[in-house]
Amino acid sequence: MAQLQMTELEVYQGQFGEFTIDSSDRRGVIIYRGGLLVAALSFAIATGLVLWQGSDPFILNVLTLLYFVFWVGLGVSLFTIHIYLKPLHQALQAFWAIGGITSLMFAVKSSEPLALYIYSHPLTIFGVGFGFAALTGIFFKEAFCFDRLETKLLTPLIPVLLLGHLTGFLSIQWEQILLGAWAFLFVVFAIRKVIQPVPPDIGDKSVFEYLHSQHLRNNASRLSTPKN
Length: 228
Fold this sequence. Notes:
By secondary structure, the protein is mostly helical. It has one domain (21-224). The protein has ten helices and two strands; from the N terminus they run H-E-E-H-H-H-H-H-H-H-H-H. It has helices at residues 2-8, 23-53, 57-78, 86-109, 114-120, 125-146, 149-167, 172-195, 199-202, 205-224, and strands spanning 11-14, 17-20. It has a two-stranded antiparallel ribbon with strand order 1-2. Helix 4 (86-109) packs antiparallel against helix 6 (125-146) and helix 6 (125-146) runs antiparallel to helix 7 (149-167). The model is unreliable at 1-8 (pLDDT under 50).
């Protein structure tokens, strides 16, 4: 117990000063990684079902459930991820929300299973695709921060697959190959995150504190400036 407390209170040197990592920081990272793992596993299971029995009506209905499990897991991760730039963080959250809301609208509107409806109507990607754009944002962030091979591959792979289906550029065989690669690399990424040390995912807390103080200072400056 004493050793755990010492670890939690370990002092780190950041760009703008010293900082410590407490239990709430670690809990946030665990939740972030748990959301990613749920999203990855549900996506991988759905992909396996599509490639195995994608035309089966029961399977198609199961895919709807798995998609929304994926969406919830992704949302949990997006609300607990550590990103220095707040506008970027909020943009990814907004993308996630737009993707989920439009997916729900399509699921309610259509008499077909959601996956079949989206596949048969490529223009729906302009709505549903926002959710996958948010996921791509996570992959880009992880590739930039940790130089992970799988996220370097996933960052361009997702837009290539979605845009390829939207434009009809990709054949069914290539869509299946890219979808399978996406699912495999996503699971690899999620598993590697689980075993990664916690502190790197928290990042430099002194940067967060500095940006927050700058934001407060700018707000105070605007309020104190007399209006003409």
